[in-house]
Amino acid sequence: MNMAVSPIPDDKLQNSDFLTDVLAGLSEEQKTLPCKYLYDEAGSRLFEQICELDDYYLTRTEAAIFREHITAMAQQVGPGALIVEPGAGNCEKVELLLEHLQAPSGYYPIDISPEILLAAKARITARLPNIEVTASIGDFTQADVWQGLKDITPRKRVLFFPGSTIGNFTPEHAEVLLEFFASKLSRGDGLLIGTDLVKDSIVLERAYCDSEHVTEEFNKNILARINSELNANFDLAHFAHRAFYHPLRQRVEMHLVSLKSHTVQIAGRKFEFAEGETIHTENSHKYSISGFNRLLSSAGFTPIRHWCDSEQRYAVHYAQIS
């Protein structure tokens, strides 16, 4: 199922952003790895499996909100819109929206995984042949992947950012990211974005530490990727997956816990791990409706409306540039 990844040649390791980020993160007092590297082809496929699990309520709850309110959302977006999706992945979530829009001017997905993105582009083009799809491969936090937008002149641009991806960023970094998004938009353009809401910690922790251990495999995959691409020697059996809710920070934290004292080499660098020491791999921040509206406003957006499920577990927001 997983495509083999060729290691980066030794003479090119020095210029690898992946290597730079890994070495920097593992050199910190609290070892970290950027969560964006969880989503290579293997990681993206594992995440798709997570989204199908009973414990992981987020995807099915968001999907239910879209099904129930898609007409209202499409009316809010309006006719002639270009839909831009940072971190598009397999692009499945956007299809329902594209189907209901009035004469959309196109779809511009951005993703770091070329295999999944190009396959999704082919699928959408076959299913919705009247919609022009312009795929941009790369990290959506970097300016270069947005350059293609200059060649598209729609009536309106709407960023589509579902899946509570905004929760992977600290509130401070989320504000910076939303400001970056706002800089790509003009007056009247919009943002359709999903957020997970604050709720009981038991529900949250089950979602990130599932009974089938798929999330554990997903979390450990980043170590396998480092081994494959960066000439490292992580033994995955020496690490365990841990996920817990931090109530004061209103976030679920994902860690990899070292089960013994040992040394790992990465591109010739040695890193010592003590028993019980962790690598912090991902955060998932949870918001209240009022709290997220304040974040939108501070980043230059005007909150317009939101839609929730009946249990108030999840929300989809629409905001625009005024």
From TrEMBL:
It holds the Pfam family Methyltransf_33. GO terms for molecular function: methyltransferase activity. Residues 20-320 form the Histidine-specific methyltransferase SAM-dependent domain. Keywords: Methyltransferase, Transferase. One of its GO terms (biological process) is methylation. It comes from the Bacteria. InterPro entries: EgtD (IPR035094), EgtD_Methyltrsf_superfamily (IPR051128), MeTrfase_dom (IPR019257), MeTrfase_EgtD-like (IPR017804), SAM-dependent_MTases_sf (IPR029063). NCBIfam families: egtD_ergothio (TIGR03438). This is Dimethylhistidine N-methyltransferase. It comes from Microbulbifer marinus. The lineage of its organism: Bacteria, Pseudomonadati, Pseudomonadota, Gammaproteobacteria, Cellvibrionales.
